[in-house]
Amino acid sequence: MTPTPDLSGRIALVTGASRGIGYFVARRLASAGAHVIAVARTVGGLEELDDEIKSERRKSGKGEATLVPLDITDMAGLDRLGGAINDRWGKLDMLVINAAVLGVISPIGHVEAKTFEKVMTVNVTSTWRLIRSVDPLLRLSDAGRAAIVTSSLANAPRAFWAPYAASKAAAEALMRSWAEETVNMPLRVNAFDPGRTRTAMRAQAMPGENPETVPHPSETAAHIMPLVDPKLTETGKIYQAKTQRFLSYRLPE
Ligand SMILES: NC(=O)c1ccc[n+]([C@@H]2O[C@H](COP(=O)([O-])OP(=O)(O)OC[C@H]3O[C@@H](n4cnc5c(N)ncnc54)[C@H](OP(=O)(O)O)[C@@H]3O)[C@@H](O)[C@H]2O)c1
Fold first, then answer.
1. What is d(CA 79, CA 63) in angstroms, rounded to the nearest whole number?
2. 3-state SS of the chain?
3. Quick one: pLDDT band at residue 249, thresholds 50, 70, 90?
4. What is the Cα–Cα distance from 238 to 189, expressed in whole angstroms?
5. Closest among 16, 24, 8, 133 to 82, alpha carbons compared
6. 199 vs 22, 53, 203, 230, CA distance in Å?
7. CA of 201 to the centre of ligand 1 (A)
8. Which domains does the chain have, with CATH numbers?
9. How far apart are CA 126 and CA 189, in angstroms?
10. Residue 1 pLDDT more than 60?
11. Most buried residue, 20, 56, 179, 228, by most Cβ within 10 Å?
């Protein structure tokens, strides 16, 4: 595993920080010294995160959190969040777009319209809206780093996973376009494929699975580090936690 970069004095925004992978990503970034802006709807989960970060800070002197209870489908709220970060810090160093929903595992023709729309709103439209809100702030960082959490299903969809797979493919397309636009800047933009991880989403998708056979989110979260490292050079790629490698997309013919 890559050595932990020193993120002291750097500002990170993590969505879906109330539980699962996002919670442990937020803790990881804070333990490396970052000030984490933690976004989710569940205040209890955010407060638990804050308690952990404060307790770690008492020992190491590192890490801080600002809690932002927000539904990421509140598009105007995402716009305001960018404005608030600008007012307070005048830049953003790291963005981890992690919050997402699974929707339903079902034959494509049985998916209800409201379920499909919800998956697309949370996983795609909010991703675009948040990118739009903070892109100028990431460009103001000396080493802006963005990671959009994806799934192998984006490039290898399976039966019954259509809405989720389509949403992850769309989010990756946003990532790749953004990476192309910023290729000559310090900003680096990649996708993070966490692989199967023991979370509420995994339990919803695989109710029959023994959770003990699936990696804990604290293990998965450790693999985010290469993507936020100020020394990172890669952009427009997928970093796969399982192999700890960057995967390139096939070039167009
Ligand atoms: N677990 C896996 O095996 C696996 C595999 C591949 C990819 N992934 C990806 O990894 C990421 C994290 O998933 P997870 O497994 O950790 O899921 P999870 O445990 O269900 O956590 C999802 C997080 O997203 C937040 N969220 C959902 N809807 C939101 C909304 N409308 N507004 C704000 N926050 C919202 C939740 O917070 P609140 O409910 O508090 O708002 C929660 O913090 C996702 O992008 C997922 O697609 C997971």
1. 25
2. CCCCCCCCCCEEEEECCCCHHHHHHHHHHHHCCCEEEEEECCHHHHHHHHHHHHHHHHHHCCCEEEEEECCCCCHHHHHHHHHHHHHHHCCCCEEEECCCCCCCCCCHHHCCHHHHHHHHHHHHHHHHHHHHHHHHHHHCCCCCEEEEECCHHHCCCCCCCHHHHHHHHHHHHHHHHHHHHCCCCCCEEEEEECCCCCCHHHHHHCCCCCHHHCCCHHHHHHCCHHHHCCCCCCCCCEEECCCCEEECCCCCC
3. confident
4. 10
5. 133
6. 10, 20, 6, 29
7. 7
8. 11-246 (3.40.50.720)
9. 17
10. no
11. 228
User: Which residue in 23, 164, 239, 249 is the catalytic one?
Assistant: 164
**Structure tokens, 152:** 């192998």
Taking CB atoms and a 6 Å cutoff, what residues make up the pocket around ligand 1?
A: 15-16, 18-22, 40-42, 45, 71-73, 98-101, 122, 149, 151, 194, 196-197, 199-202
Residue with tokens 């000030």: 35
How far apart CA 204 and CA 17 sit, in angstroms, is: 18
Catalytic site residue 23?
no
State residue 252's pLDDT score.
64
Radius of gyration of the chain (CA): 17
Residue range 32-44: mean pLDDT, rounded: 98
d(Cα 245, Cα 83) in Å, to the nearest integer?
35
Q: What is the pLDDT of residues 160-215, one digit of tens each?
A: 999 999 999 999 999 999 999 999 999 999 999 999 999 999 999 999 999 999 99
Residue 194 half-sphere exposure, CB side, CA atoms within 13 Å? Answer: 31
Mean pLDDT of 53-69: 98
Question: Can you read off the two tokens belonging to residue 25?
Answer: 């990503």
Residue having the nearest C-alpha atom to atom 23 of ligand 1: 16
Length of the chain: 253
